[in-house]
Amino acid sequence: MIPIELPESDYLYTDISQIEHAGNGLFTAIKIFKGEIVAYYKGKVLSQTQVEKRIALKQDQYFMNLPNGSILDAGKTKGFAKYANDAQAFE
């Protein structure tokens, strides 16, 4: 895997997804090649109590299930990766 050696804001941007009812989508201003790391999904690993609280408050739109069973929340982080899998259309 090869990281792109530019700030994410130089080549990534968000806009309304072309998928109906999908919310924001992630787009690139440059050609991406196989094996390149486009962005890092950053966030906070949550406890089960935190997960349940955020779900109840409908603050769970940027959760990622990790292989070890924990959940990462990118909702309050800056960065573009959280827009790569906006599942609003699947509610």
Gist of the model:
With 91 residues, the chain is an alpha+beta fold. It has helices at 8-11, 48-56; strands at residues 2-3, 12-16, 24-28, 36-37, 44-46, 63-65, 71-73.
End-to-end separation in angstroms reads 33 Å
Amount of helix? 10-25%
What oligomeric state do these chains adopt?
single chain
Question: Biggest β-sheet: count, sense, barrel?
Answer: 3 strands, antiparallel
List the strand order in the largest sheet: 5-7-6
What string gives the helices and strands in order? EHEEEEHEE
Overall pLDDT metric:
88
Class from helix and strand fractions: alpha+beta
- The proportion of residues in beta strands is 25-35%
Poorly predicted runs of 5 or more residues = none
Question: How many helices does DSSP assign?
Answer: 2
What is the approximate shape?
globular
Query: Using DSSP, what is the number of strands?
Result: 7
Radius of gyration, CA atoms, in whole angstroms:
14 Å
What topology emerges from the helices and strands here?
Elements: E1 2-3, H1 8-11, E2 12-16, E3 24-28, E4 36-37, E5 44-46, H2 48-56, E6 63-65, E7 71-73
Parallel strand pairs: 1-4
Antiparallel strand pairs: 2-3, 5-7, 6-7
